[in-house]
Each structure stands twice: as C-alpha cells, then as structure tokens.
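S.,

As promised, the nicotinamide-adenine-dinucleotide run. Input:
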Amino acid sequence: MPTDAATTSVLLTYDQLLAAITDPEGREILDPATGELVGRVPERTVEDLDRALARAREKQAEWAAVPDAERCALMHRAAEAVEANTAALAELLSREQGKPVQNGPNALFEVGGSVAWLQATASFPMEPQTIVDDESGTAVLSYDPVGVVGAIGPWNWPMMISMWQIAPALRMGNTVVLKPSEYTPLSVLAMVHVLNQVLPEGLVTVVPGGREVGEALSGHPGVDKLMFTGSTATGKAIMRAAADGLTRLTLELGGNDAGIVLPDADPKAIAEGLFWGAFINTGQTCAALKRLYVHEDVYDAVCEALTEVAAAMPMGMGRDEQNVLGPLQNKAQFEVVADLVEKARSGGGRVLLGGEPAQDQPGFFYPTTLVADLDDDNPLVTEEQFGPALPIVKYSSVDDAVRMANRLDVGLGASVWGSDPERAREVAARIQAGTVWINKHGTIDPRVPFGGIKSSGFGVEFGVEGLKALGVPKVIAS
Ligand code: NAD
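Predicted complex:
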C-alpha cells in the first residue's frame, strides 16, 4: 500500500470543498439559522453501502500490514491537512450544524478538537504486554485489528465524533465506513475528503444516506465492529441488528447528566462553569449538564448568578462574530425543547430566563432558558432535552441529591460543585456515571477514557483503553 502521498497540495477554499463533496442532484441541506441552502448531499443506497464495505474489506489487510509507526506518521500528516483547512471546514460546519464559527467551544473548536484527537490517537504507546514471564512460561497480550469498522454518528458534533471513530480505528489497522447523520452529512463528507487527500485510497469511506443505510450497516455481515453514537432508542435497535452477526459494539448513547451544587459552593465562582456545562453547543451535547440540583443554602444565589451569566451570552447566526450560541440544529429538536419547557411551566416551574421563542425569526432558535423550583419528576428533569433549557431543583440533604442524581436509567456524565475538594470527591464517588467532574462539567481529553453506564451505553472511547476497543485481544503463550 503506497503511504507516501504529499500533504502540501491540500488547501481548499470553502467553494472548492463544497464542490468536491456535493451533488447538484442531491438532497438539500439547509442552514438551521436561516433556512438557506448550504449544499446538496449525494444520497447513497444500501447497494452503495455493500460496495463500500467490500472495498473496505479489500483494503483492510493491506493497511493492517503497514507498520504501526508508519500508520501513525500518516495520521499525523492527515491531521496537518485538516488543520490547514480549518477555515473552510469550520465555515461549513457552522452553516450546516448551526454552531457559531468563532467564539466559545464552537466550530473552530470542533475542527481543532478533531485535529487534536487524531494527533493524540497517533501518539499513544500501544505495545504488546507481557502478562506472565516466570517458571510456568510466558503470556503476551497484544491487539490485532478488528477488521472493517462501521461508524454511525449524530448531528451535534459531527466532525469531532466521526474523528473519535475514525482515528482509533485507523491506528489499530482497520478500515472504516461511516454513515453520518442525515442532518449533518456535509460536515463529515468534508472532513473525510480532506483526510483522504493524505490517506491511502479506500481506508475511510463515507456513505451518506437515510436511516435504511444505518440499519443495513448495523446488521451487515461485512462489518466486524460497529461504533455508534446517538440516541438510546437507536442504540437498542442497533444492538438487535448486530446480534445475528455477533458484531462487536461500542455504544455511546444519550445522557441526562446531573450536577449537584453542595452547600459550601461559591455561587458566583461556579456560575460560568455551570453555564458552559449546560449550554455548550446550545445544549446539544451528550454529556452536557441537563439537570441541576442545588442545596437550599445557596439556591437563590446560584439561580441569580447563573441567570446573570446566561443572560449575557449572545445567541444568533453562527457567522456573526459576537455570538456564542446558535440555533437548534433541526425542527424536531426545537419541538422537543419547546414541549419540555411547556411541561416545566405547567408543572409549576418558575422561568428565570427565556422560555419564549421569538415568533417572527427564521431558524430554529430557542432562547437560553432556566427553569427553577421544579419537582424531580417533571419531564424537563427526567427526559433528555438536548437543548438550551436547564431545570433547577432545590434539595436540602446531600443524600437526597445523590438519590435523585442516580434515580434515572442513564449514566454518562455528572458533576459536583463545592469549595471543599475532598467533600466533593466523596459525593462524586457515590454517583452512578461514566465520568464525574468536580467544579466543571463535560470537559473531555483524548487521553482519558470516556463512556457511559446504564442506558448511556457501553464501551469506552479515547486513550489506550479506546484503542483496545478497536482491536481484538490476542494472547501468545508458551
Ligand atoms: P439518533 O439516534 O436519532 O441518530 C444517530 C444516527 O443513527 C443517525 O446517523 C441516524 O441516521 C442513525 N439511525 C437512526 N435509526 C437507525 C437504525 N435503526 N439503525 C441504524 N442507524 C440508525 O441520534 P441523534 O438525534 O442524531 O443524536 C442525539 C443523541 O445522541 C442524543 O441522545 C445524545 O445524547 C446522543 N449522543 C451521545 C453521545 C455520547 O458520546 N454518548 C455523543 C453525542 C450524542
């Protein structure tokens, strides 16, 4: 397999990038902020998927035979290519997904994150491990490639989440076929187009298409491992489809992350962290803070400080420089959020901010919304809003707060906020979630394993643990 393609040729304008990935006859993709046409995506069929998987199978053995150091070097060059094209990629991502280009953890951040993950994944040590070496003999554990990896992704962080699937798969010697969300296929096509200027042909293929393509991918005999990020309902359907072929799975599913503010927290000091924990990407983040439990001693002060911070954060068109929040990505999600806020209001919630979407505005803008005084069984608390509406629940005993945090059948992330780190750690240890953050929420790191428990899925991504999930363990014993 030739692995010496040049990277210097890859510098595309926005128009060149769009022209390379769109099809004049394709399906319209509209800007969620304005309703304007972003581009037309080619729609592929299940037969196209079959062909892509057959090709990925052919290429996989060759790629697996490339030495690890060479694979890593190519991945670093592919990361350089993505970095070089940051401006065009971020603009497209902003237009298609809605997130602002510039400020805060938005489109430039997402492209930068994709680069960082690719680089980090190409840098982890992944050596065979000697488990036994004594008078009884030796046992050495290493990881072979799984084979062909199928990847299905959501529409909230389409580039970065696709990179979380692509990078470890490639590093471990696999080839990848991705089915992007039908809402944000252009972002994934664009990023992979740039990667493929550097990577040998046929390692990473995007097959944009509807749900039927996702269904076919998850039950396909040509897939050895399926990486899925999306809703819990779809994750269950995928697990059923994968059963016949015993296809290995990593399922990163929905969350409803709790945050617990302890009585010793400093409301003003934590307000901005709480805001970004909940409203990053306009709340459309799997591990966003989705329900906030605040001790009665600091309840009013936290409500006030958080309202002050949230009210000052501009929301609007992604290309206007001052904005830090954008629209919801699609109408269906707008309706979910609007319905849950109505249920919160009718359930006795006190709206501290927002709650009234403008009627005359184009785009799926739902204002930043805080609803206090909610019962713990209100639907805005118990269901995943996946949008900019945070419910706030008052509690009087930490035991109660822990019980409420743990009562739902999801466990992706959670957070504890307080001035005494030891106390916060003790509470964190009692919370059922894949990650519990202290005095922050949702910060991820390519070196640190990330994944859910309960209905938030299973398997981890990132770090060496994430690499192992894209391999099959093999022991050689003597
Ligand atoms: P979704 O489940 O509706 O769709 C995800 C993908 O699955 C899309 O590409 C879709 O086409 C495909 N799909 C739909 N039905 C399918 C089927 N039967 N078989 C195979 N594929 C199918 O999710 P979404 O609305 O795009 O994303 C939002 C959800 O994703 C939220 O619940 C969020 O919490 C979750 N999420 C989780 C993580 C994580 O890391 N745990 C990250 C981001 C998003």
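The two ends are 33 Å apart (CA to CA). The first helix runs from residue 14 to 21.

- D.
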